Amino acid sequence: MKRMSRLTTGSGRLAALVLATVVLLSSCAVYTPPQPQMGAVTNPAVLPGAVRTAEWDIGATPYTWQGQGLNYYAAGLYPVLLLFNNHSGRYPVIYAQECRGIGVNGAEYPPYSMEQAAEVVFASTAYKKSAEAAVVGGLTGAAVGAGLGALIGSAFNHGWGAGPGALIGAGAGAIGGAALSQQPSMEQYRASLYQEMSTYAWRPSPIAPGALVPGYLYFPANLGIHSVRVVLRVDGAMQTFIVPISQAAW
Question: Could you give the count of Cα atoms lying within 13 Å of 102 in the half-sphere of its Cβ?
């Protein structure tokens, strides 16, 4: 509880710093639109532990470090990609703060807020080493941004959940790699990672009929989390599902 309190009290300072660095990123970096890395639409129902109902399918798969960019596991996070396919005529909503990661002996953990997750990352040794490699070593493009987006097709960068036109495949560089088409400064690298984490986080928006929606939940690392308790709200009622975290096969 003490750690969570420190994270919460520092969120205001972090938000101000992020705002300043995003302004710097937009003014100094050369933006190049990401190149789509399209694959076949992947229904979460294909995951071994997926929850399948008459109205929707829900799956969860862990983030996988691809060997480039920041290793979020080493930075203190356990990102879990939540996948939702709505084949009903209704508009359900899932709030990240109501989800729980289920770990050893049934212990449950709330996900970090976006600000808390970023603070954990930026305080880590892994982030410092990654930033130095990008700035001093001159890494650019996909080598900087190949992170969370490695599981998510870049068509979802703008307006996730619009429909199942594209999804999860062998994605290339995420937002950071697209924005930093030249050697970054430390501030630009920091802003690009925050933008990546924010872009790919789970969003509490009503999920339209026919939509196939992905988004990350950021849990603390090293807690043995194996499943996610998902609370779904629709038409004034609540439904709860336990979704095992399964390794993706795509």
Answer: 13
